Amino acid sequence: MDLTECVISLARSLGVVDTGIADAGAWDDDVLVSRIIPKDERPRALMDNARSVIAIGIPAQRTILATAPSAYYTEHYRTLNSMLDLAAQRIAMELNILGYDAMFVSRDGYQGIEGLRKDPSSFFSHRHSAYLAGLGTFGMNNMLLTEKNGPRIRFTSVITNAELRHGGPMKKQLCTSCMRCMNECPEDAVPSGRYPENMTDKRKCVEYSAILRSKGCSPCGRCIFVCPVGKDANGPLPTDGAVKHIRSYTK
Question: Which of 4, 22, 214, 243 has a CA that sits 20 to 30 A from residue 221's CA?
Answer without folding.
Answer: 22
